[in-house]
Design brief:
It is built from 28 helices and 27 strands. The protein has about 750 residues and is an alpha/beta fold.
Length: about 750
C-alpha cells in the first residue's frame, strides 16, 4: 500500500466507517473475534447507514455470520479473485475514469491483466462461483462510499505484498480513496502495532520508515546529537549500516545458517522484549536456534514462553518488565491516532519500565550519553540546540522522549505532537465528536482526537482520513504523495495540471518540497538565514521552515502526485496471482508458478519456485490448512492463558475439521489426531467436527504453547508460572514460504496430512 500512494497505514478510522460507510468488504479477517471493538463499528454502519457487508474468507467465521454475502475462497487466491472483480469493473465501465486519468499511473497494465481473469477462470482458481463473483462485484462497485478491510489473512502469505497492493488498487480504481466512509482499513490485533512499526521495530529501516541509506543515518545522528563517525564505529564494518538485519520470521537462520546467509558472523545472543517468538512460524527451527545460542535475555512482565520452548538448563535471563499500568506515554492506534496513558500504579516488586531496562543496558555498555542525548535537544528559533548537558541526568520521561520524536520523525508528520497536546486530549474525551473525531469545544476545538499522523505542526489538527483532497491542507487534506520520482518511462508521476486539492495555492501536480525547489514550487522567497537553516528535504528539515512555508501556501510538503499501480522495484511490478508454495492444485502450479528463488533478502537465501516445484505436495499432503484467532486468547495467548477464567473458555488446543474429512480418516469428534506438515513436523491436537470448514481444509488457532510435537514442556515453567492451559503451537506445522518484500511467513495457504492419534 505504501508503494501505491506513499504511506502504508489505515487510511480512515472505525468511527468514520460507522458514520459514513454504505458498503463494506472484509478480506482475510475475522474481526468479530480478532478485534471485537472494531467489529462493533462495522455493525453500527449496518444499523445506522444500511451498509451492506461482504466477507471473503476460506472459513465461515463469526464475522461471516453478519455478512450480506459470504464468499468462500481457496486460501492464497485473493489476487485472482480481485482481478476477477476488476475484470467486471472495467468491462462494465464502473471505474472512476476521472481519477484514473488525472491522478494515477499504470492502470492500463492492471486493465490488461484483469482482461485475462474471466469469471470462469476465477472460479477455476479460487473456487468462487462465477455467478457469485458477478453479483458481488456489481454490489460493491455500485454503492459509494465503500470501504475495505483486511488483516493477517491477506498479509501472511508468500504473496502478501501483492495481496495488499491489489486491494489498494481496487479501491483506487473505484475512487474510494480519500473519502469519508471509504479507504483501506488494516485491522491490527493490538493497540500499538502501528506505533511499534512507526518507531522502527523493523529489520530494514530506521524509525519512521527512513530506510538505511546515508541520508537517513545523517538525519538521525543530527537530531540525536551524535557524531556520525561515532555511529559508524558501532558497526563491525560501515557496510552493515546499510544492510537489512535478520527478519523476525527467519532470525533463526542467522544462528543455524542452514540456508546461505550474508553476515560477518553467526547470531550468538537474542534479546526478546515485547514479543512472543512462539507466534512466529517454524517453531522447531526456532527451538534448534534457541538451544544453540550462547545467551537468551527476555524482558517481559511474565514468563515469556520462548524460555519454555528453549528447553535448556541455563543461559536464559528473564528481566521483569512492568505492565502498561505501571508506565506513562502514548500508543499509536490502528487509525494512526496517538492515545495518551497515565501511570496507574508505580512499578511493583523488582520490575522496571522498558526504557529503564534499556537505560541500564546503555550504561553497562558505555553509550548512555549518546543514547539519551536526543532527549536533551530542542528546536529554538529554527535551530537544533542541546539544552541539557551530558552530565545532567534529569530526563523527564516520557515528555522528553515525545519531544525527541516530534523533532526528528518528520517523515510521518510528528512535528505537531507533544506530551502537552496529547495529555490535553486525554483530559477532554467528552469534547470530541465520536464519529468525526473532531474537537467540538473548549481547548481541543478544531483538533482531531489523538492528532492522527501526519500532524504537521503545532497548528495542524491531525489527519483522520489520508489522501482527502476535498478539504484544505490546514484541516487535514492532501493529495497523493510524490515518493517515486518525477517520471517513469517518460510519463510524469505528478497529478494532472487540472487537478488541485481544495484550498491549495499551488495549481496542479507538484513534487515533494525540497531546499532546491521550494522557492519555485511554492512561489516564495527565503531569507538568507532561512537558506542557511533549511534542511535538504521536507523529511530532514529540522528547522521546520519547509512546513511553515507550506502552511502559508496551503500546500502539503508531500507534493501532489499520481498513485502508482506499477512498482518497478518489486519482482512482480504489478500484482500477479502465484500459486502457494505448497498448493493443492499441481495443474495451477504449472500455470501460475512461484517467483524465482531469492539469493539474498534480510541477509538470507529464500526458496520460492525450487520448493514449489520440488514435487506435487498435494499427493502426500492433500488437506489445506488455515489458522485463526480466539476471542479470549489474543496474540499468542501467553497472558490470557494465565487467567483461569479466560483459559477455561478454551481449555485445550484443537482443530476444526469437517465431519466428512474426519470420518475419512476414522477420527471421531473430540478424539486426538496428528497433523503432519511438508516440513516433516507434526502436532497432536483434539479433532472438533465443524462445518465452518469444507471437506478439503482444516482450521486451527495459534494461541497455544507449552507443547512441541507431542512433548509436554511444562517442566520448563518456573514454579507458579505455568498457565492454566497449554497446547501445541500451530506454527510448528506452518509451511515453508516467505513474502519476497517483507519476509512475512506463509501462515495461511499451506498443506497438511491428518491421521488418527
Amino acid at each position: 500500500m505504501a508503494n501505491t500512494w506513499g504511506y502504508g497505514a489505515m487510511t480512515n478510522n472505525f468511527s468514520d466507517v460507522a458514520a459514513n460507510a454504505k458498503m463494506m468488504i472484509i478480506f482475510g479477517a475475522n474481526t468479530a473475534v480478532a478485534n471485537p471493538i472494531g467489529f462493533k463499528h462495522i455493525l453500527q454502519a449496518k444499523d445506522r447507514n444500511g451498509a451492506k457487508l461482504i466477507v471473503v474468507d476460506p472459513v465461515y467465521t463469526k464475522s461471516a455470520v453478519h455478512a450480506d454475502e459470504y464468499v468462500r475462497i481457496r486460501p492464497g487466491t485473493d489476487i485472482a479473485f480481485v482481478y476477477g472483480m476488476l475484470h467486471l469493473i472495467f468491462k462494465n465501465g464502473w471505474e472512476d475514469k476521472e481519477l484514473i486519468d488525472k491522478r494515477t499511473y499504470g492502470v492500463d497494465k492492471i486493465r490488461e491483466e484483469a482482461a485475462k481473469w474471466t469469471p470462469e477462470e476465477v472460479e477455476n482458481v479460487t473456487g468462487v462461483p462465477a455467478e457469485q463473483l458477478i453479483r458481488i462485484t456489481q454490489m460493491y462497485a455500485s454503492v459509494k462510499p465503500a470501504t475495505l478491510f483486511w488483516s493477517l489473512g491477506i498479509t501472511q502469505h508468500s504473496v502478501g505484498s501483492s495481496n495488499t497492493r491489489i486491494l489498494a488498487i481496487l479501491q483506487l480504481v473505484l475512487g474510494n480513496m480519500g473519502k469519508k466512509g471509504g479507504g483501506t482499513n488494516i485491522i491490527r490485533g493490538h493497540d500499538n502495532v502501528q506505533g511499534a512499526t512507526d518507531m522502527g521495530c523493523l529489520a530494514d529501516t530506521l524509525p519512521a520508515y527512513y530506510g538505511l541509506d546515508d541520508g537517513a543515518w545523517n538525519h538521525f545522528t543530527q537530531f540525536w546529537g551524535v557524531d556520525r563517525e561515532y555511529m559508524n564505529s558501532r558497526f563491525f564494518e560501515k557496510k552493515w549500516m546499510h544492510e537489512k538485519g535478520f527478519s523476525l520470521a527467519k532470525w533463526w537462520q542467522g544462528v543455524l545458517q542452514e540456508e546461505k546467509t550474508h553476515s560477518n558472523a553467526p547470531v550468538r545472543v537474542v534479546w526478546v522484549q515485547g514479543t512472543g517468538i512462539t507466534s512466529m512460524a517454524h517453531t522447531t527451527k526456532i527451538q534448534e536456534a534457541l538451544k544453540k545460542l550462547d545467551m537468551i535475555v527476555i524482558a517481559e512482565p511474565f514468563v515469556n514462553e520462548i524460555a519454555v520452548l528453549a528447553d535448556r538448563p541455563d543461559g536464559i535471563y528473564i528481566l521483569p518488565a512492568t505492565t502498561q499500568y505501571e508506565t506513562e506515554g502514548y500508543v499509536t492506534a490502528t487509525n494512526r491516532s496517538m492515545q495518551w496513558r497515565d501511570q496507574v500504579v508505580k512499578p511493583i516488586y523488582e520490575s522496571k519500565e522498558d526504557q529503564e531496562i534499556m537505560f541500564e543496558f546503555a550504561k553497562k555498555f558505555g553509550f548512555y550519553k549518546e543514547y539519551t542525548r536526543g532527549m536533551k535537544m530542542e528546536i529554538i528559533d529554527h535551530e537544533l540546540k542541546q539544552t541539557k548537558s551530558d552530565d545532567d541526568d534529569s530526563i523527564v520521561w516520557p515528555d522528553d522522549a515525545t519531544r525527541e520524536m516530534s523533532i526528528g520523525l518528520l517523515s510521518i508528520g510528528l512535528r505537531g505532537i507533544s506530551a502537552e497536546r496529547l495529555r490535553k486530549h486525554q483530559r477532554n474525551w467528552e469534547n470530541f465528536d465520536p464519529d468525526s473525531l473532531i474537537g467540538l469545544r473548549g481547548e481541543v476545538k478544531g483538533e482531531y482526537y489523538g492528532l492522527p499522523w501526519p500532524c504537521w505542526d503545532e497548528k495542524h489538527p491531525g489527519t483522520p482520513i489520508l489522501w482527502n483532497s476535498d478539504i484544505p491542507y490546514e484541516e487535514g487534506g492532501m493529495g497523493f504523495r510524490n515518493r517515486f520520482g518525477l517520471e517513469h518511462n517518460g510519463v510524469s508521476q505528478l497529478a494532472s495540471y487540472d487537478f488541485t486539492p481544495v484550498g491549495c495555492k499551488v495549481k496542479g501536480g507538484y513534487p515533494q518540497i525540497t531546499k532546491a525547489n521550494i522557492e519555485e514550487v511554492l512561489n516564495v522567497r527565503l531569507t538568507k538565514r532561512e537558506q542557511e537553516l533549511i534542511g535538504a528535504t521536507w523529511s530532514t528539515d529540522l528547522s521546520g521552515i519547509v512546513l511553515e512555508k507550506c502552511r502559508q501556501r496551503s500546500a502539503c510538503c508531500l507534493g501532489n502526485a499520481r498513485a502508482r499501480t506499477i512498482v518497478w522495484e518489486f519482482p512482480d511490478q504489478i500484482p500477479l496471482h502465484r500459486e502457494p508454495i505448497h498448493s493443492p492444485r499441481w495443474d495451477l502450479v504449472q500455470k501460475y508458478p512461484a517467483l524465482p528463488d531469492q539469493e539474498k533478502n534480510f541477509r538470507v537465501e529464500t526458496k520460492f519456485i525450487s520448493e514449489q516445484q520440488k514435487q506435487d505436495w498435494s499427493k502426500d499432503f492433500p488437506t489445506i490448512i488455515s489458522s485463526m484467532r480466539l476471542v479470549n486468547l489474543s496474540g499468542a495467548g501467553m497472558l490470557e492463558r494465565t487467567s483461569k477464567y479466560l483459559a477455561s473458555i478454551t481449555p485445550e488446543m484443537f482443530a476444526n475439521v469437517h465431519p466428512e474429512l474426519a470420518e475419512k480418516y476414522g477420527i471421531k469428534d473430540g478424539a486426538m489426531m496428528w497433523i503432519h506438515s511438508p516440513q516433516g513436523t507434526k502436532i497432536k491436537v483434539k479433532c472438533i467436527h465443524n462445518r465452518s470448514v469444507t471437506p478439503d481444509r482444516i482450521c486451527l488457532p495459534y494461541n497455544f504453547a507449552g507443547m512441541l510435537q507431542g512433548v509436554d514442556l511444562s517442566y520448563n515453567y518456573p514454579e507458579g508460572t505455568k498457565p492454566y492451559t497449554i497446547g501445541e503451537m500451530s506454527n510448528t506445522i506452518t509451511n515453508y514460504g516467505f513474502d519476497p518484500i517483507t519476509q512475512i511467513s506463509e501462515y495461511n495457504a499451506g498443506l497438511c496430512r491428518i491421521e488418527k492419534a
